[in-house]
Amino acid sequence: MITKRLLPFLALCATLAAAQTSPAIAIRAGLLIDPETGTATPNQTIVVQAGKVVAIGANPTVPAGAEMIDLSKQSVLPGLVDAHNHLALTYKKDPENNVYYLTYVMDSTAIRAVQAVSNGITMLNSGFTMVRDLGNNGNYADTALRQAIDQGWIPGPTVINSGLIIGGFGGQFFPTPEHANLVYPEYLDADTPDEIVKAVRKNVLFGAKVIKIMVDAKPYGYTVDEMKLFISEAAKSGMKVAGHVQTPAGASRAVEAGLWSIEHSTALDDEVHKAMAAKGIWRVGTETPYTGYNAQTEAGFARVVAGLKNAYANHVKMAFSTDADYFIPGMTRGEVVIDFLKSWKAAGIPAPAILKIMTVNGYEVCDLKDKRGPLKVGLPADIIAVNGNPLENIDALRNVPFVMKDGIVFKRDGVMTPAKFFNSGPVNGWRIR
Is pTM beyond 0.85 here? Predict the structure, then answer.
């Protein structure tokens, strides 16, 4: 009989067995990019075994029989992060017929989970090894996606999912009395302290890893004390609270309450940015570019650029984020997301700063920096390679010919090889790591 006391020992044995049997991989990097320091070191080798980085250096010890991967003509760096996406939401963005609201009526949770798998794979293909998925996933399709990736059934980025978005009655919208139920299960109602506690606990129970609230989607919105209740209740489960903000008053209350992050930037001005910087609150601004294929206007884009410039000048903690939940003909979700570089470049933010925002800042806002993300010995091997040096030209990130996730090569020489993920596990339903 296996007792609870034996479980940690058995887990350790499984990990050690995997380390002993898993063949090592040695990656030769032409340039090894460190986004945190903004430096590039030539001719480095990264040794990976059992899904983790075990050595980095000019001449590290490489185990006998290790597979050699030659990236000596490329720059190697840790994976990218999109800190605000909706992988299980893919509505057709038509300027004349926006059917965002109808998604909830026309698409089942099951089909949206399938969309999430597809979108997740394209994100990984574009070099995004971590995605913060903030709601609009039907009845917990985001949890299903995260579990499927974690268990090794499908390839995909590490997903930090919010479960259902919590807000006042009606969620983000104003349905008619006859059809008030149309916004569900997209949202969880929480209009009283008891409902706030229950909503947080429901999301925790059903697999959320971050809590997202609608700060001011209704005229009354959440008070500072109500948001503090969200924060304290989420903290019991080790989670942070992200707040969707759309008004200046809501932004001020969110800052006063001390939310972990403010989602979207349309309501953020110089005064709020200064307050955010003083309190260390993350700006997850979802800066939509002006490209001609979306509903963004030139005037709207000018405001996006001005906001980015102001936040950067005020030293606000920023994360690369997109809210890219729409379909563009001829483009994958990953290609749509990387196109948001246009906004950051237009704001005149230097390439090294953008790269740090897309990597190190992303790991931090996902609350995983000490567990996953950076290229450090002992952490999971999430590695990408690009042609050129992104510290000099950030557009080098637009073409990612090599992707490794959890020590498994997903893409090599520009070709996806997802079969390796399926062949690597699961073991009794779980991939051993």
Answer: yes
Q: How many domains does the chain have?
A: 2
Q: Residues 277, 144: one domain?
A: yes
Same domain for 241 and 326, yes or no, is yes
Task: Give the residue-averaged pLDDT of 44-52.
Answer: 97
Domain that holds residue 114: 80-365
Q: pLDDT per residue over 359-378, tens digit each?
A: 999 999 999 999 999 999 99
Asked if 197 and 67 sit in the same domain, the reply is no
Rounded distance between C-alpha atoms, residue 346 and residue 296, angstroms: 15
Same domain as 239, residue 184: yes
Query: What span, in angstroms and rounded, lies between the C-alpha atoms of 143 and 129?
Result: 17
pLDDT tens-digit map of 293-309:
666 788 889 999 999 99
Instruction: Say if CB 391 and CB 41 are below 8 A apart.
Output: no
pLDDT in tens, 218-273: 999 999 999 999 999 999 999 999 999 999 999 999 999 999 999 999 999 999 99
Distance separating alpha carbons of residues 164 and 140, to the nearest angstrom: 7
Per-residue buried b or exposed e for 63-100, using 16+ beta carbons within 10 Å of the residue's own CB: eeebeebebeebbbbbbbbbbbbbbbbbbebeeeeeee
